[in-house]
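Posting for a labmate who doesn't have an account.
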Amino acid sequence: MTDSCLKQLAARRIFQVEYAQEAVKQGSVVVGLVNKTHAVLVGLKRNAEELSSYQKKVIEIDSHMGIAIAGLASDARVLSNYMKQQSLGSRMTYGRPIPPDRIVSQIADRAQLNTQQYGKRPYGVGLLVAGVDEAGPHLFEFQPSGLTHEMLACAIGARSQMARTYLERNMDKFLNCSRDELITHGLRALKETLSQDKELTIDNTSVGIVGLAGEGAKGKFESFKLYEGQDTVPLLEAVEQSESGGNAGESMEVDS
């Protein structure tokens, strides 16, 4: 091939991948963050109309792993079912849970294959995968192109940049915080993405958490726990208390 042909091939864009990434950007936001003992997923649920139910945002894959989705729910259902099958197969074949990094690599290969074959399209969904293994808690980001990253904190979906800004500013605080404080930081990051006329409620908020059973505990995991509905009440109250305490501290500094 000539140099001009090589440049043209390098400049080609896979438009279907870009359309799939746009679907992720249009989805309601999800946030993930991890510290030394736990990984947390929080999601903002959205309903298509007032008469419809809220879309599920956080899904348990296995007792040691869960995902948060942004984008096409139908594509997320296909990927989550595949991940559940692989997790079950690992337990039946090897008698142990599948490592989070391995299953993330498997769905990445599956997604990337769709960009190469005629008649298939990329999955129009982004995932945040939270899991725990012998090394501790992990958080991975999955993109429609098949690209994956292990993250300390991440946010995807509509208005997610505001959540990422919060996470960047407060990273030093949540890397060594407690389990409950980590959830509070996740919800505060999620709250940053809301428009002025909206609030976090028990109807539109989902929280999932997984981690080690105790600080320094090896081989003992805390099973994935999903908080929805009335279960989120104490979590949302903790966010309000943390914000009121922070505002009080700020006003004291100004008065002095």
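Reply:
Got it, the structure tokens are right above this. Residues 233-255 form the longest helix (23 residues).
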